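Budget justification, computational time. The allocation requested in the original proposal was used primarily to generate structure tokens for proteins on the priority list. As evidence of use, we reproduce two of the resulting records. The first is shown immediately below.
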Amino acid sequence: MQTSRIWRRHGGKIVFGSLIAGSLLLSYKDIASNMQNLSQAREMISANTSKQQLLEEQIAHEKAQAAIAEARYNAGCTIVVAVNSPRNLATLVEGEPVLDRTTKKPLPAGTVVCDANGSTGVIVHNAQGELVVGQMAFTGNRELALEQVRKIRGAKVYYVTPEK
């Protein structure tokens, strides 16, 4: 009697609940794979977002570095030439010394140096106390770098520029 009353009162709910439980039981693998796919998609989105953020930070850093380098070129940096061929311009490398062409001694601290590729630096003391290129900044404005070379008219490169 109690059972028939429950069936009469809640029969539709029991049948409906049983159907839902059965369908969930039959499709649990699909649900698990969908949850895994969603988790993978979430991880991929997170990785892409962090990559995008790193790229945006890099662009901001490059713009700041370019502004510094352009200011150094406009203020008149010292062009550096190669040791083995004074008519050839050298590329600045952070941590390497830049020598005066006449005395063969390092340029004094605080000297702003540049190359024809758009790199600029300041002569600083390294951990060992040596005078080397540091505080590097790069501009992609190659025309600005070449303009600096034109200012010294190319021929003067041998006489007025330090060597690396």
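The second record produced under the same allocation is shown here.
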Amino acid sequence: MKGGKCHYRAYSGVGVGATHKGAGTEKYNYGITKRGSRYLVLQTGKLYDRSAAVLYGARKGDKVWVTISHSEGKNWASCGHKSATNSPTTLTSKAYQHSSSDVQGHYMRACAKTDGKVWCATNGNKANRKHSDNKKRYWWTDS
């Protein structure tokens, strides 16, 4: 597994018509990954197709970010880290272009750190074991 420096352009929001990946789809657990009273989604705008990680029920000290890969998850960059300064709150990372005419092949997922433990969304339209630890990971793509 390799995590790299984030070199992608960050945006302050996902754009117009915000929803989240997997919303309304039982197959993807409606795009929600729950951990106790918190839940994590990869929010996406319909116009601009930018994505951001959102942690609902965040507590002071929690963190959220997106992970972006161009190698189907083998290598990635963690981007847009945000930390909660109060609780409870909804915590949103910076947003990144998911796809456009000049951005293609992105695999993205939402990740968080709560109670001292890092965890990422357990749903997505792509799943693989392209890591040295052979653990299954889930990603969202536009393909």
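A brief technical remark on that second record: Residues 10 and 96 are 5 Å apart (CA to CA).
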